[in-house]
């Protein structure tokens, strides 16, 4: 009888795991281009490791952002659930070349703006993680404004995920768990009847 209880516990634990829910398309720039993004940038694009002293934060590519003379933009609009809390995360690195600027807007609200960002440690230059929480409107737009006249800033692993205080199993997982429970109940009943 111990094996079915262990199986039941494992099934319940697996049913409680959340599904991947990243709302950003191509947030790691792994297509090797700006697929999924609206780009109004010059002298910028996804690059592989070793470019201008940067490696990707993860994967094979990162966005090298080096608009000259003014701010270029990289934006993406995504559907979400109005009223729900979400978390925007991205990773940024700088080699300290100036003038540079990096700004992040969510819809018309500025979340981050920094001018003449100094070099992040190491070569390749290390990434700094940034995280912001926001309440969704049902359709939101994240916009990265960027400029680096003599060189590039590096952006990678942009994601938007729901913020959840409790793990809620998906309906399919609950149904699977219920089916497993019925099967275990039938197994236990047959075992009791046979032992009589």
Describe what you observe in this structure.
The protein folds into 2 domains: 1-18 and 169-196; 20-166, Sandwich (Jelly Rolls). The chain is built from 2 helices and 10 strands; from the N terminus they run αββββββββββα. 20% of the residues lie in helices and 36% in strands. Strands 1-4-9-6-7 form a 5-stranded antiparallel sheet, with no helix packed on it. The protein has a 5-stranded antiparallel sheet with strand order 2-3-10-5-8, with no helix packed on it. It has 196 residues and is of the alpha+beta class. β6 (100-106) and β7 (109-115) form a beta hairpin.
Task: Give a brief rundown of this model.
By secondary structure, the chain is an alpha+beta fold. It is 20% helix and 36% strand.
Shape: globular
Main sheet specs: 5 strands, antiparallel
Helix content: 10-25%
- Please tell me how large the radius of gyration is: 24 Å
Total count of domains: 2
CATH homologous superfamily caption of the largest domain? Galactose-binding domain-like
- Report the end-to-end length measured between terminal Cα atoms: 16 Å
Number-wise, the strands total 10
Would you identify the regions where 5 or more consecutive residues have pLDDT less than 50? 5-19
Strand order within the widest beta sheet? 1-4-9-6-7
Structural class: alpha+beta
- The residue-averaged pLDDT reads 83
Name of the CATH architecture of the largest domain = Sandwich
**The top level CATH class name of the largest domain:** Mainly Beta
């Amino acid at each position: 009888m111990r094996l079915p209880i262990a199986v039941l516990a494992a099934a319940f634990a697996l049913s409680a795991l959340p599904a991947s829910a990243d709302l950003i398309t191509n947030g790691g720039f792994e297509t090797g281009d700006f697929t999924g993004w609206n780009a109004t940038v010059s002298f910028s694009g996804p690059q592989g490791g070793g470019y201008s002293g940067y490696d990707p934060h993860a994967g094979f590519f990162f966005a090298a952002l080096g608009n000259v003379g003014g701010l270029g933009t990289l934006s993406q609009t995504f559907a979400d659930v109005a009223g729900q809390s979400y978390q925007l995360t991205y990773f940024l690195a700088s080699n300290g070349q100036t003038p540079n600027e990096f700004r992040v807007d969510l819809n018309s609200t500025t979340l981050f703006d920094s001018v003449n960002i100094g070099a992040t440690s190491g070569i390749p230059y290390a990434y700094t993680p940034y995280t912001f929480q926001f309440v969704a409107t049902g359709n939101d737009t994240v916009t990265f404004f960027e400029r680096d006249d003599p060189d590039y800033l590096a952006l990678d692993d942009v994601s938007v995920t729901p913020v959840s205080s409790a793990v809620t199993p998906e309906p399919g997982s609950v149904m699977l768990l219920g089916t497993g429970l019925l099967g275990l109940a039938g197994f236990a009943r047959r075992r009791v009847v046979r032992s009589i």
